[in-house]
Design a protein that fits this description.
The chain has about 400 residues and is an alpha+beta fold. The chain has helices at about 1-15, 20-30, 60-75, 85-105, 115-125, 150-160, 175-185, 200-210, 250-260, 295-300, 315-325, 370-375, 385-395; strands at about 45, 195, 200, 215-220, 230-235, 245, 265-270, 280, 285, 330-340, 345-350, 365, 375-380. About 35% of the residues lie in helices and about 15% in strands.
């Protein structure tokens, strides 16, 4: 029981704002098995280099950890250093920009610490980057992130700001007040820092060390309610920038991922992890052939004790799950490789940001059916996209 409680705590702090704690408790409390690892035999087919697994702590910053990890793999692939970029610097920049949007929209937009893959790319282009060693965001003695109080304080402040108490106009220093709260909880951002014997600003570090062009990264969604091969908006609360991305058919999700991995590119992946067939403890996610609610107790107990038959996924099923909240924009991770199980079936190797205390030391194995069904968005280097798809997109 203690292990289940610890698992639940991890899941509760790792998700974004889409689910309440009560909702998540109902969904994830039993999704594990004590005998899972013995039932799977995975053989790695391809796996790109990645930096060590981190722990996002009590913060909804999976999008920043996963996409920064994606960029770190891009740096390694380009011959750059294998270092951690600061996900909290990225998140802090996004929170300030999000505060501007919140005020501009008079509070009629989501407020929370969640985000999307494109937020990391946009913040990199606008603000630069900092090594994690120079900006951890742990400003007052905590060992892991804890953002709940900070985000509550910021929302209360912003809600007062939009009331415009200064004779119907906003005060000229409200952004400084928001920045002051961020400084208090996360620490001031260093104007300069030392790296490898040289002095950098965040902008010069991004230019001279990170060396990644933000224009090289393409984000995809897949929905049937807007035309394929055109840009559309993913209608989820954490898309606070209202960004439009390329809408592709469901089958092209795995086609792009497979091509990217085969050519040594990784993938930043947004997905739903709230279903009972996703097990963080066991590092396994798949779509059972039979609905979990129709399973016998013995079937539920053995869900993660070896490969099982899977349901066939259609675009219509995928859209229905998205429309009725079965698929929600919960979590961001990084797809780094492909493995085969003992039956020859391919699974994606996925790097998470919840620490290393699961069966695969922070990694998971996820079936292609799961990815087709539960992907909310994905991002890849444009050179990791199959040529025929690039031609359709004109990139």
């Amino acid at each position: 029981m203690r292990n289940k409680i610890l698992l639940l705590a991890l899941l509760l702090f790792a998700f974004g704002s889409a689910w309440s704690q009560v909702d998540l408790m109902k969904k994830v409390v039993n999704n594990q098995s004590d005998n899972s690892k013995e039932g799977f035999q995975f053989t790695t087919v391809v796996n790109a280099e990645a930096t060590p697994v981190e722990n996002q702590g009590n913060s909804g910053t999976c999008w920043s950890y996963s996409t920064n990890s994606f960029l770190e793999s891009e740096m390694i692939r380009n011959g750059g250093p294998a270092i951690h970029l600061s996900p909290i610097f990225t998140a802090r920049c996004a929170y300030l920009q999000k505060a501007v949007n919140y005020v501009r929209m008079h509070g009629s937009v989501n407020w929370g610490d969640g985000g999307e893959e494109h937020d990391v790319i946009n913040m990199l282009a606008k603000y630069g980057a900092i090594p994690e060693s120079d900006y951890t965001g742990l400003n007052y003695g905590t060992k892991i992130n804890d953002f709940s109080e900070m985000m509550g304080v910021l929302k209360a402040m912003l809600d007062e700001i939009i009331k415009a108490p200064n004779q119907g106009t906003l005060t000229p220093n409200w952004k400084e007040a928001v920045n002051g709260v961020l400084n208090a909880y996360l620490g001031p951002v260093p104007k300069t820092f030392e790296y490898d014997g040289k002095t950098y600003t965040p902008q010069s570090f991004a230019k001279d060390v990170v060396k990644l062009n933000a224009d090289n990264y393409v984000e995809f969604i897949s929905q049937t309610n807007t035309p394929y091969w055109k840009k559309a908006m993913m209608m989820v609360p954490d898309n606070w920038e209202f960004q439009h991305d390329w809408n592709i058919p469901m089958d092209d999700i795995t086609k792009i991922i497979d091509y990217a991995l085969a050519h040594h590119y990784t993938v930043a992946w947004g997905t739903d992890v709230s279903e009972p067939y996703f097990s963080w403890k066991n590092g396994i996610a798949y779509i059972p052939a039979e609905s979990v609610r129709d399973m016998t107790p013995d079937q539920r107990a053995s869900m993660f004790e070896g490969p099982k038959p899977e349901m066939t996924i259609t675009p219509e099923m995928r859209q229905e799950a998205f429309d009725n909240y079965q698929t929600t924009d919960d979590h961001g991770m990084q797809i780094t490789g492909i493995a085969k199980d003992q039956n020859g079936k391919e699974w994606y190797i996925v790097k998470n940001s919840w620490g290393t205390k699961n069966d695969y030391k922070g990694y998971l194995y996820v079936t292609k059916n799961y990815v087709e069904y539960k992907t909310t968005s994905l991002m890849v280097n444009k050179n990791g996209i199959p040529e025929d798809i690039r031609q359709k997109l004109g990139i």
